[in-house]
Structure formats: structure tokens, C-alpha cells
UniProtKB/TrEMBL annotation, chains A, B, C, D:
Keyword field contains Disulfide bond: no
Species: Microbacterium pullorum
Protein purpose: Catalyzes the hydrolysis of 10-formyltetrahydrofolate (formyl-FH4) to formate and tetrahydrofolate (FH4).
Similarity comment: Belongs to the PurU family.
Pfam families for this protein: Formyl_trans_N
Gene transcribed to yield this protein: purU
Key words of the record: Hydrolase, One-carbon metabolism, Purine biosynthesis
UniProt protein name: Formyltetrahydrofolate deformylase
GO molecular function: formyltetrahydrofolate deformylase activity
Active site residues per record: D237
EC number: 3.5.1.10
Listed InterPro entries: ACT-like_dom_sf (IPR045865), ACT_dom (IPR002912), Formyl-FH4-Hydrolase_C (IPR041729), Formyl_transf_N (IPR002376), Formyl_transf_N_sf (IPR036477), PurU (IPR004810), PurU_ACT (IPR044074)
Amino acid sequence: MTAHVPTLLPAHACLIVHGEDQPGIVAAVSAMITRIGGNIVAFDQYSDNPEGGAYFQRVVFHRPGFAADRPAIEAEVAHTLGGFDLQWSLTDQSVPKRMAILSSKQDHCLLDLLWRHRRGDLPVTVPMVVSNHTTSAEDVRSFGVPFFHVPSTPGPDKSESEAKILELLVGNVDFVVLARYMQILSADFLEKLGVPVINIHHSFLPAFIGAEPYKKAKERGVKLIGATSHYVTTDLDEGPIIEQDTIRVTHADTTSELARRGADVERQVLSRAVLWHAQDRVIRHGNHTIVF
Amino acid sequence: MTAHVPTLLPAHACLIVHGEDQPGIVAAVSAMITRIGGNIVAFDQYSDNPEGGAYFQRVVFHRPGFAADRPAIEAEVAHTLGGFDLQWSLTDQSVPKRMAILSSKQDHCLLDLLWRHRRGDLPVTVPMVVSNHTTSAEDVRSFGVPFFHVPSTPGPDKSESEAKILELLVGNVDFVVLARYMQILSADFLEKLGVPVINIHHSFLPAFIGAEPYKKAKERGVKLIGATSHYVTTDLDEGPIIEQDTIRVTHADTTSELARRGADVERQVLSRAVLWHAQDRVIRHGNHTIVF
Amino acid sequence: MTAHVPTLLPAHACLIVHGEDQPGIVAAVSAMITRIGGNIVAFDQYSDNPEGGAYFQRVVFHRPGFAADRPAIEAEVAHTLGGFDLQWSLTDQSVPKRMAILSSKQDHCLLDLLWRHRRGDLPVTVPMVVSNHTTSAEDVRSFGVPFFHVPSTPGPDKSESEAKILELLVGNVDFVVLARYMQILSADFLEKLGVPVINIHHSFLPAFIGAEPYKKAKERGVKLIGATSHYVTTDLDEGPIIEQDTIRVTHADTTSELARRGADVERQVLSRAVLWHAQDRVIRHGNHTIVF
Amino acid sequence: MTAHVPTLLPAHACLIVHGEDQPGIVAAVSAMITRIGGNIVAFDQYSDNPEGGAYFQRVVFHRPGFAADRPAIEAEVAHTLGGFDLQWSLTDQSVPKRMAILSSKQDHCLLDLLWRHRRGDLPVTVPMVVSNHTTSAEDVRSFGVPFFHVPSTPGPDKSESEAKILELLVGNVDFVVLARYMQILSADFLEKLGVPVINIHHSFLPAFIGAEPYKKAKERGVKLIGATSHYVTTDLDEGPIIEQDTIRVTHADTTSELARRGADVERQVLSRAVLWHAQDRVIRHGNHTIVF
């Protein structure tokens, strides 16, 4: 039984606007929404420097018949923002984003996302799970989700396995989640994929970049461990951070115990990042994110 | 040395609007701000029910010459919002609010607020501290703040001491903070005072209402203790909550230890509530607060 | 793939001792363990008042051949502690406790426990899940765990359904977990069951006792919500607290959103309480717990 | 008014033992304490590997007349532990440690420690504060604590100012706290000082080692900031960590705002580290700490 949180909003649209800050953007956008018969239900804005910085805005508005009238509304938005030199995107909040999950052997993040999705807590569909191991196949399929096994090509050249994954993904998904997927994706793969990729790293970045962060955390003797969800770029563990969290540990926790306890933080952090991305709450700006 | 966070904003104003939700409020307000030559630097809004609920909006805008042109700008706001049946208030963000502190023997919240104020972290002035004990006099005056001692009238009738406190406060302060002030204020006092009063209660309300919450927490065997800052109403510990927080304790913590550790949470929670109130971030709505 | 945390310890025993504090208990117990050829690997003690209070001690020791020699070792413990007027229990840390789960429609706590168990993170077996609804049957059985459906008898008298549940449980389980089981258990049931029962309540007790805590939390306007795991007694929501936690919410969270976000806290709090109980880390003392 | 937490324990001693793990240590120590007429009030032990690792033990015991009989008791401890090849130290829990504080311009950690000390929450005396700036002189002296101004020698060679600080400290203090002291101490200084030095670093180490961690945190776009208290070694920001904590920040927090909010975490983390050190709860082991 779900908690019945409405994650899809019929006849609602989300308008994201960002670019150089200029006076009058709020007025122009809100007047336009009134003009097209919309009612604003959520409005967030942020300027990183009121005197000539970058401007970010997210507006959710209710507009009966949005889906049918979308072309006209998009034209109106383009016309309104024409004078401002801003980037914008308009999404239909009644349409779920299509999320593919890539996973390896560790299943805690994978199963947590599938379970949240089934419960109705994520405004997404899950067209497929792709894994380089077969261990989770039965679990994934028990959620009614297709499972594809693409073994990793041995050796440093992953182009063969990456090509197979691209065949599955391209055109079928709106974003990809790496749920403890233990392979590094090439720049070529990311470019051909063409949609955002969200990763979960099992440390509080930028501490413990790279492999075996729990082992490194144990060696350094930290008193907290963490997890970081970020957009994947060609720089390993250096992409824009969406969400992070930490929990307290002690000298008595072994590396295995850190991994066991960290799993709880990982799945919470990842699920929040996925939810916010799916709700169009995250705007990328250079190596930063604005999360509304 | 301060951290140099600018808490007062020259030539900035804050417009708070709340009332029945209706289409077009954002458009009307933002167009008005453009019209008067203002530039929006922060915009928050919330509707507790998009289909006919209550609407809340906070806009901070930059407007050169705001202080001089304030009467004309207020007239423009009144004109703009005239058709909407909304309540509104307009404050000058370059003018600090005048905050009086009432205290008793416990000094941790009192000294923390004075220290944050001196450091430049609170956009307030502190015209006076009033205490029913003399123990903090020297500390308070070392911060350059006047200290007045008003002993509590013995017995249940506090009208005499309350009258003395009112003489000191009325007309001189914009809000009052009870920094672990151990006297209950009468409805008559609150009415005559006429400005908001913020209290810090040393529990996670509504758990452990009334006296000796740490003793009650020890008796119940809780694993977390907390603190709650709220606006004072005539119902003891029942006013609108502004901020709360908790920390972890164990079976080994005595009641005294809970009090010692809780003091850290109390001063953090109170200082956040005071900051947000002073920045006009808190809107009262029945027994709730909207905190932007 | 599991994190490989060894939760069962071959040839290890746990000795819990509690009662009136007296000098020499540590010396007597540790000398005894040396005498029987054991090596202490974890030692915790607590006295709630060094001058004549209650004493609590948990010792885990390694002793090759413990299972075979247990009768002789128990006799040695009894002999050693004979002069102290203390209660004690000795458990084999290589033997998992048998945990039954009672559930209703909400499945987040249920599935989380089953998943943690499968992952190897809980030193228990799960002989059965009993539910008054059928919705989780397939999920439970996919974990290889028997599922029994016992509908709740309509009306206030639950003796018929309770009798059926007792038939299933008595003799087969070492403790019972109520994973959001929405029925109140009678004093008669608890007595006949004769093993500890652990509940998860979806509030920070003692705030919001009884039904619909998230609704009450929304009405009161709290800024944090919480969850509490406690041993069940005949006083509803009043039993000894094992673990609690809270998370931050805002004015914008609806009651449904509180329920969705609270589900994460509930499953974390319950899983910690279950782990600690299964590891013999929790000692009940009146309405309190000592958690080592 | 203080919370009256008894931080000094008359007629109590603390015995710290560490070294190679061997069977029988607990039994030998506890029998010895019984033999000398002591009663154990707190007992903690930890072994980093039950099969031949390092062993750590902290025992607090009540022994009437401890101060007078200390030589005889020390001989008994030496005799008891003679066969074990362990290091040990015995401290009188009724004697406060002498803590010097080194500070620069930032006063939040300095004043917080002085205030906690005056409140009775730290089992220390504060014989002096040494600063390379004069800004805090009046504040420090208002707490009844001597203030010495030792300007930092310009240029990289700090031997002159370090020599002056050593003259003040050596022989007069049991440990030193760097309360946001913005000078790096030389290896020579640390060796001549000969007592533990505790630092507070304004990041979650090992993230953002070195100067300007809040600026680096802003640049990386983290969603949490933290603070770390550690023992000072000759490797900058690499010493054994005693305590850490984090708080949540957002994209909207400027570097100055991070510094303001971080100040709260810094003083909490430092005060906990100081308390635990003063209570002999922290054992150093290589680059790690065991905190009981």
C-alpha cells in the first residue's frame, strides 16, 4: 500500500529558466502565465549575485488543457523570454520521466529505487535495469521491470559492452541512474547517451575519491561516513553534487561494518537525488547544482 | 572578528503578503515591483491548497532610494493588492529590529544571542535585557547592553512585576525573546506588550510540555532530547512552532547531563528562530508558521 | 551480494548480568571467564547510581567448544554469581534468534527487515510473517519466508484472531516484530506469547501517542517528525524505548508527504532496534532500556 | 548558573591500559581494583582484532583515599600489569587538567570554551590564553583568565614567537587547544612543548585540507559542511581525528554564510573533543583515536 503522495500532477507544467540576471524576469514570466490562463502553484528563484550574476527560476503552474495546448504555450514562452537571453525548458508534470538503472552485484540502491517506484513515491517509469551481473535478475523482474544482462568486456576497452548498453538505452530513457554500478563510463559513452546520468558515490565527496572509500575512511579514522549523489561527467567523482549526507561511526566499526551502515545512507541520498531530478528541481550550472 | 555576513541590506525592502489564494498574485506583485523600479532578489511563495487555500508570499527587492520613497511605494502596494483581499506588510531591510531579551538565572541562551549580535550575525539592535535575577548583569553590560533587574513579584499575581517590565518595553522594542525566562507571562501582559514574543522550550514539543522537561525525558527513557522555539500565546507551550531540533542521548546520561547537552540545542534552535524572525522569514498562520 | 558483516559468531557467548550494584562483580565475572578458558572480546557495564543503584553488564567472550560445554559453563556462572543476588542470562552467539514479523498493509518496514535479513545483516532467522491482509503474500514468499494470513476478527474482541496467531507463534519464535501492524494486542495475548514484542511507532514518542501521528504532527505544525521503536507492554505506546530518530520537515509537507518521508525513518529505527535486540545489546529495566 | 554536572570526581581514578591483546587482562585489572579496595564505576574496552590485535581499556574506579595512597596503588598496578607488556597511565579524576588556549582573531571557539569552563561543564583549569592578536584581551580577562599577547614573527621563521609561547606554556599546562589559531606550529615547537595539542579544522577532513576550506567547499558545491577536531602532528591537518560533525547547507549559502554557520559546528565539535580529552576518554593509536 502506498502513501498516496501525488507525484504526477495532471494539467501542471514546470518552467525552468536560467541565464544572466536582469530586472523584470519574474514579472514577465508571471504575467505570461496569467495570460495563458495558468495559476502558479510553486515558484522558486535564486540569483548567485544580485548585481549581474546568474539567475535561476523554477515555476510550476496549473493550466487546464496544458498537454493539448502545449505548442501554443511554448510559443508564448519563447516570445516572452525572447528579449532576455535566457535558457528555458518546459516539462509536463503529468508525464513520468523514463529512468533506466545500471547496477552490478550490490543490490541495496537498486532494490530501494524499485521499491520506492512501486510504492508510488517516484514520478518515473522504469523501462529497464541493465547489469553486468545476473544476480539481481529475479528480483528486478519480480517488480515487473525488464532486466538485461550485459557483461563487462574484460580489459580496459569497454567499447563493446558500452555499445550494447547504448543500443538498449538510446531513445528509450530520459535519464540513467548508476545504482552502485562498478564500471567507469567513457566520455564517448556519455556523449552518445545524451541524457543525464546520476551516480551514487559511497563517501562524502570530495573526501575519498575513487575506489574503496570505506577502506580509506577506516584508514583515516574518520568519525562520520557519508554518501554523495552527483551527475556523472568525464571527471571521475567530480561532477555536480545533487545531495549528500553523513552518519556517525566509531573506532569499533570495521570496514565491513562501515559498508553495511553506509548502505543506508547511500540509498537515502540516491533516492532523494532521483526524486528531485525527476521533479525538475535540479538545475546544473557549471560544476554546481541549484536544488529548489 | 566577524564573519562579515551582511545581515542588513541597504536599499532593500521585504514585502510579505498572505491571505486567500487567487490567480494572478505573483504577476501583480512582480509587475508592481518592476513598475516602481525595484529588482527582485528573493522570492518565496507557498499555498497550503492550490484549490482555494491560504496563500503566502515573501519578496525581497532592491530599490534605490527605498527609505525616501517609502510612502509612495506603500501607496503603490496598497493599490496593487487592493483587488485581492490580502494582508501585507512592507519592511525596510536596512533597518534592524529592536530585540529585548528577558532572562532568569540560566545564561546560555542569553549570552549566545548577545555574542551572535556582537559578531554581526543578527540584524537586530538589543536595547535592553530584563531579568528577574541579577546574576547576568555584569556579563550583559560588558556587551554594551543595558541591564534592568525586575524581581518577580512573589505569589501567583505577577501584575506588579509585569507592569514594570511593560514600562521598560512598550514603545522601545519590536520583539521580545524569552531566553530561558522562567516566568509565565499573563494574557494581559501579552496584549499590552503588542509585539511578538519568542520563547525557547527545552523539549521537542509537544513532548514534555510544562516544567522540568529534562526530568520527564529521563523518566520516559527517550533516546533523543530536543528544543523548540515558538511564538508565545496564552496557551503555555502551545504557540506556533518556528524551529526545533534534537540530539542523541543514552541511558547513561543523567538529568543534569541532559540539561548540559540540551543547552547546546536550545541556543542553536533559539538563534535560528531569532534570525529568521528578524529577517521577516516567518509568517504566522493560525497555530502554524510558514518559514521561508 | 552482502557486505559480509559477520553477525553470527562461532564459539562466542554473551553473558548479561543485572541487579543490585555491588563491588567485585567485574572481577568475579572476568576471573570466571578466564577460568573456563574464555577470552573477553567485548565488555560493557553501567550502573545507574554508583552508590547502591542498579548494575548492568554485557560480556561477549570467545570460548572454543562453547556449545558442547555449555551445561558446565552455565553451572560455573551460577556458582560465580551465587553470592551476588543478580539476574543473568547466557546466550550462544552462533545461534540466530527466531524472529516472526506481524504486518498489515503498509509494507515498508516488513520488506526492509526481510531484505536486511537476506543480505546477512541481521543475526536472525525468519520462520514466518503473519498478516491480517494478503497484499504482501507474494513479496514475502519471494524471500523464501512462509506467509500466513490471519484476518482480524471484526469488532473489539480480537480473541479469535489472537488465538490463531498464538497457535502459529508459540514455541516457534524467540521474539516478534510488529512492522506497522495496525492491531492492538491484548494483555492476554502478550502473556500467552511469552517472548519480547518490538513495535515501531511513527512518531517521536511521547509526542503523538495513538492513532494517526502524522496527521497530528501536521496539525501541531512541528518542524521535525520521528519514529520510535519500543518493547510492547499492555500500555499502548508506553513501553520501554529502544531507539528513536527524527528528520526535518517543513510547512510545505502535507500529511501524505510526512508519511512518505517518515517511512524512511521508521524502517531505519526499527532495523536498528531489531539488530540490537538480536545481538543481546538491550537490557530492559522497568520502563527503560540500557543499550550497549 | 551552571547545570551542575559533576565533572570532577573526588576519590576516583582512571586507569588507561593499551598494548597487545592477551587473555586475562580484564580479570587481572578488575581483581587488582577489588584488591586495593576500589569499586569500578565505568569500564570500557576495545580490541581492534580479537585474534592478536591491539587492546584498549579505560576503567574508572572509586577508591576512598586515592590521592594519599596513590604511590602504593601505582605500585600495585605496575605489579599487576608487569606480565602483560602493556602501556598504562593512572590519573586522579578529582584533579582538573590545565588547558591553555591559543587563538587569533576569530573568537567563537575561544569564547565558547571559556564560557563552558565557567559554567562548570569542563573538568579543566585555564591558566592562560595566548594570542597573536589583542582583540580578545578584554573578553578573556573578564572570565578571570590571564591573556598574553605574542605577536607572530613576520616571515616563515616563527622560532622567535614560538620560543616566547613555549616560555609561557612549558610546565604550566597539561594540554593546549588551538581555537582557530591561524599559525602552523613547527615540529620543534611540538617536541619542546611535550603535551598534547588539539586543533579544530573548519572542514570535514580529509576534505578541504589546508587554507580556506569554506571557500573550497563553496567552489566544490557541497551540500554539507563540517568541522574536525584532531590532535596536532607535524603533518598539517593529518593528525588523529577525535571528533567530527556536519550540517546541511544549500546553493544559496555564500562563503561568508558557510563561515557563519560553520562556526556553530566548529565550537560544538571542539568542545566535545576537549571534554573527552579532559576526561581521559581518548586513546591515541597510530593515526587513530579510540574514544570511550
